[in-house]
Predict the structure.
Amino acid sequence: MDLGLRGRRAVVGGGSSGLGRASAEALAAEGCDLFLWSRSDERLALVAAELRAAHGVDVGWIAADATAREAARVVAEAALAAGDVDILVSNAGGPPTSDPTATDPDDWQRAFQLLAATPIDLATRLLPSMRERSWGRIVAVLSSGVRQPIADLVYSNAGRSALASWLKTTARAVAAEGVTLNGVMPGRLHTPRIQQLDSGRAEREGTSEADVRATHLANIPAGRYGDPAELGAVVAFLASERASYVTGQLVAVDGGQIIGM
Ligand SMILES: NC(=O)c1ccc[n+]([C@@H]2O[C@H](COP(=O)([O-])OP(=O)(O)OC[C@H]3O[C@@H](n4cnc5c(N)ncnc54)[C@H](OP(=O)(O)O)[C@@H]3O)[C@@H](O)[C@H]2O)c1
């Protein structure tokens, strides 16, 4: 299937690693030009060079920190200065783990800036030009925690639920204008973040990483962690011409982990 992405241009958050990088790779493989962002200049430069060399697409980038209030403005201005933006893959890092009975107001503020305020601000800044050109795709990387809260990730469960709610509301507001907004909900896919979560839990519980992984695998019907490319493929489809009648949806990419319908 030709996804109709050749010549489109996508802003991809967290594009230097894990799920963001895999999404960037899937889009680039379809001939989509890219504008990446995350915090580290060094990693972005490296990944941009690799994607350019592998796929022959144009790849720009800028460093910004999604926990900072000005991040969305900085990224949107830089991306739009270099050309039209057709697609936004909304993604960055995750918040810390926490005991849900002992959360901290400053941590809530940081988590909501990272997971809701910055993604909404960035999408809001990119939406007008998508609406003017009657074509746009916003795909947010959420988490299975939106549907099935994860015990030690309360900041993530709540912050991403706020973003999901904004996506669903806004999808209806712009549905007649050729602009779609959807989310993907990863379960457990092999990335540096998941590696850190598993090793952190092993340390907290005085057990091994293998034991932590076995506990997770017992709840994943597919019997394995996912490959980031398996999420990148779903993101590329939702960002494509072919997904033109899909909007306001949250798609799990979780090997069957979420139990509810
Ligand atoms: N992997 C999974 O199975 C899974 C499951 C559920 C949810 N998620 C969520 O999906 C998102 C991507 O996770 P991942 O597994 O791909 O993690 P990852 O491999 O650690 O990648 C995170 C990416 O985000 C960037 N980033 C981190 N903090 C940032 C910040 N404050 N501002 C801007 N960019 C930032 C990182 O680059 P820099 O360090 O250079 O900034 C990196 O490019 C996270 O929000 C994660 O919690 C992942």
User: Anything to note?
Assistant: The mean pLDDT is 98. The longest helix spans residues 105-132. The pocket of NAP is lined by residues 14, 16-20, 38-40, 43, 65-67, 91-94, 114, 141, 143, 186, 188-189, 191-194 (CB under 6 Å). The domain at 9-190+226-253 is CATH 3.40.50.720 (Rossmann fold).
